[in-house]
């Protein structure tokens, strides 16, 4: 685990040096564009090749994964819209916001600037989802 963490940090360091890291909106736009390429071009071409090479089951799986990538693009674009409309930490309706660091829950229309329990920034809050 420690070695993997070291290697991950090395990769992040080189990436920052070579390409820089954009802000969240830029990163979401780039990610959405990448997902778009994957579902509109890459996996479609993989499926065509698989069909040509007589792998029909593989072709079907490529197309199913393309559908998943489409949903990923939609998710990234929805998150980007939330940033552009300042809806990330402020909602029109009452929601539960949960600090991803300590688990503190706020009930209201917006997350606090700082978690009152662990003092992590507002960016650590997310709309609480119970899907279990």
UniProtKB/TrEMBL annotation:
Keywords: Electron transport, Iron, Metal-binding, Oxidoreductase, Peroxidase, Transport. This is Rubrerythrin-1. CDD domains: Rubrerythrin (cd01041). Residues 1-87 form the Ferritin-like diiron domain. It is an enzyme of class 1 (oxidoreductase). One of its GO terms (molecular function) is NADH peroxidase activity. Gene3D superfamilies: 1.20.1260.10, 2.20.28.10. InterPro entries: Ferritin-like (IPR012347), Ferritin-like_diiron (IPR009040), Ferritin-like_SF (IPR009078), Rr_diiron-bd_dom (IPR003251), Rubrerythrin (IPR052364), RUBY_RBDX (IPR048574). The keyword Electron transport applies. The lineage of its organism: Bacteria, Bacillati, Bacillota, Bacilli, Lactobacillales. The keyword Metal-binding applies. The gene is rbr1. Its EC number is 1.11.1.1. It comes from Streptococcus lutetiensis. Its cofactor is Fe(3+). It comes from the Bacteria. Pfam families: Rubrerythrin (PF02915), RUBY_RBDX (PF21349). PROSITE patterns: FERRITIN_LIKE (PS50905). PANTHER family: RUBRERYTHRIN-RELATED.
């Amino acid at each position: 685990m420690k070695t993997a963490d070291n290697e991950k940090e090395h990769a992040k360091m080189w990436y920052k040096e070579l390409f820089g890291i954009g802000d969240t909106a830029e990163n979401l736009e780039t990610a959405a564009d990448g997902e778009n390429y994957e579902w509109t071009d890459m996996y479609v071409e993989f499926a065509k090749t698989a069909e040509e090479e007589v792998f029909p089951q593989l072709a079907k799986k490529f197309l199913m994964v393309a559908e998943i990538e489409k949903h990923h693009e939609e998710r990234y674009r929805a998150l980007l819209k939330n940033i552009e409309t300042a809806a990330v930490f402020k909602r029109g309706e009452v929601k539960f916001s949960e600090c991803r660091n300590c688990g503190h829950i706020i009930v209201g229309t917006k997350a606090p600037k700082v978690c009152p329990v662990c003092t992590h920034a507002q960016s650590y809050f997310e709309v609480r989802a119970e899907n279990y």
